[in-house]
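hey can u run this one w/ zinc ion bound, need the structure tokens asap thx
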Amino acid sequence: MGVRVKPKIPTELLFEDIKVNRNNAPHYVLDGSEVDIWSEPYASFHSKSPVDYIRDKILECGKKGKDPFPDVIGKKREKELTKNALLSGSSILFKGKKGYGKTTFSKSIAKLLPDRVLAIKGCKIYDDPTHPSCFSCKEKIIEHNTVEITWIPRIWVRIPGDPMLTTRQLIGGISIQKIRDGYDLDHPEVFIPGRALKAHRGVGYYDELGAIPSSLQTLLHELFEEKQVTTTEGDIVPFRLDAVILAATNPANYRGTSPIKEPLLDRMEEIEIGPPETLEEEIEIGRRNMYLVKVKGLEPEIPDWHLRILAKIVRYARDKERRDIASKIDTEPSCRATIKLFDHIKSEAIRNGREIPLLSDYGDSYDIVKLALMGRIELVYGVKETKEEIIRRLVEIALNDICGEVYQKIPEDRFEEFYDGLRKIGDPLNGQSYLPIDQKIVSKSRMNKEVNSVIDRFLENKKYSDELYLSALEIVLESMARCMNTPERKYVERKEHGYVMSDLR
Ligand SMILES: [Zn+2]
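ok here u go:
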């Protein structure tokens, strides 16, 4: 049954901090052959704590003028604070609403660890061959002449804040009594590590720290401070957790969050993570995290104007200081809304047989935009408009804005020739001209010198496909429809999948 009558070595010894060096070490065997772990290429993959690996890497990046967190877009100030806290060996609490990159930040910190380290083979918490922490490995190091070791990949463990979390899930099942009774040290009833201990030698990321039951927060406080825990029976667990502790929480008064206990807060440096500061950062986060980019490794192929319109829809919804409409929104859309908007518009284009999106891909009454936003926006209680109406207005504001910029790019001195050229490439319709937004119009447009030179310049003379050309032509026509018309006179109007143009004079 794996039960021994008497432990081979006294329990007391297992409570001691055991460190070995080159002189008193057992023989280490890696993949069947004995290795000298103090020689190259093994020397830098043991005996070093994760905090020190990360400190060294940050200092090294500093010397080379490199950003240690290239996966985090923008956030200059937050990065500086994070470097400082990590260099001081502190735990960090990232505070911010969901979807602003707290998890990405924690993962990019973990990336400062070596991509693999050496560990004692079979250890449930990947013990360091020179500094074992669990009972079973301590015994191996003390008692055995030969110890098998193995490579283990970089450790990043997410510990979700769950109000139902139990001590066993968090810390593990550790029975000092069972050891005293003579149970085998790696007997499953003696030691089952919980998620907190699984972060040993890596990064433990406490997502939604406030949602962890307060009795467990007390245990964590001891674990973060003393690197060890006391069981509910009062036994100190002879175990030292060596991990970088990171945590995340939503700001107070935000739905679904409970408070973090004071002593725990006192042991962490708080760094606020807000929304992306600029439109460009918002777009870059959206692009990099699109499904097709992240999972399939493809280029997003969404024209700049669409990226800007879509990202602005999301940013206006957050901009309570400058936008009236944002004050009607209680829960604001995060970067995930931007990512999903990019995804859905792209998917709709593909469904319609294209790579490059057109305005029609926003859907009838902007249904595709709503798909990305409906669940990510909550209105303030008592607002008269429906969510659909608010989203519709956000799209209109963003379209007006970007179309205003596009309209400015039509050269003033050639405007009339351009306008007439456009009318010429359209089909006659009741004394007006109709330009359908389809591939046929592209070849006509390319043949017309006046039209082609303006669109070519708008596309910055880069190499472009017919689809991109069509999208450019469409956004220029849309900008004319939005910027030229007066209540008395309609020059350009969208009609179905095209534009009707009347005579300029
Ligand atoms: Zn171990």
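Residues 11-272 form a domain with the Rossmann fold fold (CATH 3.40.50.300). anyway lmk if its weird
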